[in-house]
């Protein structure tokens, strides 16, 4: 297996530059893993594929205004993308792991000044935030540690909100609409992620209500989307790629809901790859045997997994970290079906989806989507893998 195996040619005009309106009017490609067949539907039709007792698990993380555009003291433009607070370095939370541009010219001790309005702010506008480049992030490619200092009486979070913008992916080049469209309708109020869990962008409150009326259960995890959203696999052998660590939370309500769905013979359906990684990261192959009333709720890896790890259970995770890398050959122990978007070639997300189905099925489905003129990537259309 090579990274080239997850590459494909995509016409530029199929990269979605704006979200569907309403959200659930986008297209939905349904991939049946048992025979590789596909159906072409609308996302609102997803109700037809879910039954009473099925469990939908979504990632409720909210995107922070993580894109900061400022100027060096020389006047040159500089851009910073906030990825993760590093309380292990500064308990006050002023040090962040970031991506910076121009990376090669922003050396340690360089200072960037940020004003409201970013690059278009007049020189007379007040500086609300300063960032000093500290060092490279160990083990990363292009990551920097940056110490931020807010101006005046502002807290750091207040200064970031005044200077920052929602960080749309670089392939979205001309979107000037409501930045809230890059948030899910069920996102929490606290902001922790550098990018949206985009499979969830297609849900509306009305669609969620319809699913609940059908008897589908809705629960939420949280995974703080980090640097690997922006980084492709560059190694020829994808097994050599090193996943970045992300923080995640799987609360007791999710664990209980998974147990109940499995005991009833119903499916756990993950909304997006981040929910998949949260649920599968919370699986403990060495979990101790449950009490007799709960034994029937325990489960094994799905039968078609290439590696069966043995009995185990999903457990609660609070403020945990994961670098789980799912690729062809990996086992799935919790997730039975998946909702996802169409992903960038050569990405870890392509490999995760190809592990859940097969690479051949996924590549064929992508080719069908291209021929049918689906819209790709963050603001694009969706897939359901059943």
Characterise the protein shown here.
With 386 residues, the chain is of the alpha+beta class. It folds into two domains: 3-63 and 178-385, QueA-like (3-Layer(aba) Sandwich), CATH 3.40.1780.10; 67-165, Beta Barrel (Thrombin, subunit H), CATH 2.40.10. 16% of the residues lie in helices and 24% in strands. The chain contains six helices and 18 strands. It has helices at 156-163, 205-213, 252-263, 273-281, 348-356, 359-371; strands spanning 27-31, 38-42, 55-59, 67-72, 77-85, 95-101, 111-114, 129-136, 143-150, 164-165, 217-223, 246-250, 268-271, 283-284, 313-314, 317-322, 337-341, 382-385. The strands form three sheets. The chain has a nine-stranded mixed β-sheet with strand order 2-1-18-17-13-3-11-12-16. Strands 4-5-6-9-8-7 form a six-stranded antiparallel β-barrel. It has a two-stranded antiparallel sheet with strand order 14-15. Helix 5 (348-356) packs across helix 6. The longest helix is centred in the C-terminal third of the chain and has 13 residues, at 359-371. It starts with 26 loop residues before the first strand and ends with a strand. Mean pLDDT is 91; it is low at 289-310.
